[in-house]
Amino acid sequence: MGSIGFSLHSPFSSLLLCSAPHSTRNPRKPKPFSKFTPKMALATPTSFGFSSLLETFTVNVQRAENRPLNVPLTAPFTIATSRLERVENVAVRVELSNGCVGWGETPILPFVTAEDQHTAMVKAKEACEFLLRSPAMTLGSVLGEIGGILPGHEFASVRAGVEMALIDAVCMSIGVPLWRLFGGASNTITTDITIPIVSAAEAATLASKYREEGFKTLKLKVGKNLNSDIEVLRAIRAVHPDCYFILDANEGYNSNEAIQVLDKLHEVGVSPLLFEQPVHRDDWKGLGNVYHVAKDKYGVSVAADESCRSLADVKKIVEENLADVINIKLAKVGVVRALEIIEVAKAAGLNLMIGGMVETRLAMGFAGHLAAGMGCFKFVDLDTPLLLSEDPVLEGYEEMLEAMVDFCTGTILLDETFEFIDHNSIRHCKRTVNNCLAD
Q1: Going by CATH, does the domain composed of 36-180 fall within 3.30.420.40?
Q2: Among the listed ranges 33-37, 199-203, 264-268, which one has the minimum average pLDDT value?
Q3: For residues 7 and 31, is the Cβ–Cβ distance under 8 A?
């Protein structure tokens, strides 16, 4: 099967979040479209960059609003520390005085994000009210003010949603796609696909399905029961023998259990590409123990995810040599702080991963642009829109079958490749959207 990619609509396409969500299970009929290769997309460089826009672009907000973004899942999403029955996020819409609109999303994942939906709604409204009463100011100044209103990890997810919407609106204003704004390294990225904590039989069924759809890298949620996790891994290996594994324990193991998993996998000839957050976020000694055994004995990288929620955390990981991969999630630290963390991690020689909570194409599209544009992420985990039984996001990027020249709107992640065509940002709409956010 050819790989499926994603392209962007033209700047004149619209994106709506509607009370009657658009289902991803019935995509519209593909329409002819000329294939746009990465080489072609990168042929015309731009002088616009995020750093320069911070001081040169003046933001004047004429409308800002937030509403719940509630979407059903195809099945409960279970990890070691949480179980999500449905997405209950918050969408943010910002309209500038020039009529350009930006969208952002605040994801809510219990026990992972600090905010629940109610808190996120209250704080997002506070930020929107600030934007409405503020005079025109530079993009850098307004992002700094938002950082003050929504400080630290406590409100990081809300901060990320507001920052996304502002930056998106600015991109729309200057006619530059987000991936170019963040460096223009590429318009293509490749993502894994996640299997949550399920029975061995269910995991095997999912693995078979993903194998047929072309996925080569499976990210497995583990950490609740060591023996069950080993059974699941063996069951998946039986039906998808050529797949690559990423293990994500979401803090579920202690260091001894995490090392046992690696030992048992080695016995059956399985070596994961990456072991993500094997121990509790505050177990720095345990994280270091697992990292050194994984790297020195088995050549397996270890990623800090929940343990990396601030710039100070990254510096501690670097100074004490506790992991060799940092997982960047915009909902953990916000967009601005994520860019700072990326630079520190790169300077220290750490590898980077980009991931998400459980988001729609709003937040995943933004993260995809950032990853493609910066071109510095070794591991990409931006598959969560596939977990949704309905898609409230109309337009935006499109799936593209690489073996064909047809484009199709609606479905999110049926394979591993995004392609961002050189039009504009992922969620733009020229038209005013009134009361169209999902209730």
Answers
A1: no
A2: 33-37
A3: no
Which of 221, 297, 378, 430 is catalytic? The answer is: 221
Q: Is 406 annotated as a binding residue?
A: no
- Is the pTM above the cut of 0.85? no
Identify whether the C-beta of residue 33 lies closer than 8 Å to the C-beta of residue 10.
Answer: no
Q: Which whole number is the average pLDDT over 228-248?
A: 93
Domain parsing of the chain, residue ranges: 36-180, 182-419
> Residue 268 has what pLDDT?
83
CA pair distance 33, 38, nearest whole angstrom: 15
Fold matches, 36-180 and 182-419: no
Active site residue 35: no
DSSP for 188-219, written as a single string: EEE--EEE-S--HHHHHHHHHHHHHTT--EEE
Of these residues, 219, 329, 332, 430, which one is catalytic? 329
Residue from 68, 125, 61 nearest 94 by CA:
61
Which helix (H) or strand (E) covers residue 68, if one does?
strand 61-79
Least confident of 107-111, 133-137, 374-378: 107-111
Cβ–Cβ under 8 Å, residues 11 and 430: yes
Ligand-binding annotation for 248, yes or no, is yes
Convert the pLDDT of each residue in 157-170 to its tens digit.
Answer: 999 999 999 999 99
**Predicted local confidence at residue 431, as pLDDT:** 24
Q: Is 163 annotated as a binding residue?
A: no
What pLDDT shows up at residue 307?
97
CA distance 150 to 140: 15
In the residue annotation, 219 being an active-site residue is answered as no
Tell me what pLDDT residue 158 has.
98
User: Which residues, in sequence order, are CB contacts of 113 under 8 Å at separation 6+?
Assistant: 107, 156, 157, 331, 332, 357
Those residues with Cβ within 8 angstroms of residue 79's Cβ, 6 or more apart along the chain or in another chain: 196, 197, 221, 223, 248, 250, 252
What does residue 331 show for φ and ψ, rounded to 5 degrees? -70, -15
| Structural contact between residues 54 and 138, judged by C-beta atoms closer than 8 angstroms | yes
CATH number at 182-419: 3.20.20.120
The whole-angstrom separation of Cα 205 and Cα 261 is: 22
Cα dihedral 180/183/186/191 (nearest 10): -100
Structure-block tokens of residue 51: 């750093």
Residue 220 has pLDDT above 70, yes or no: yes
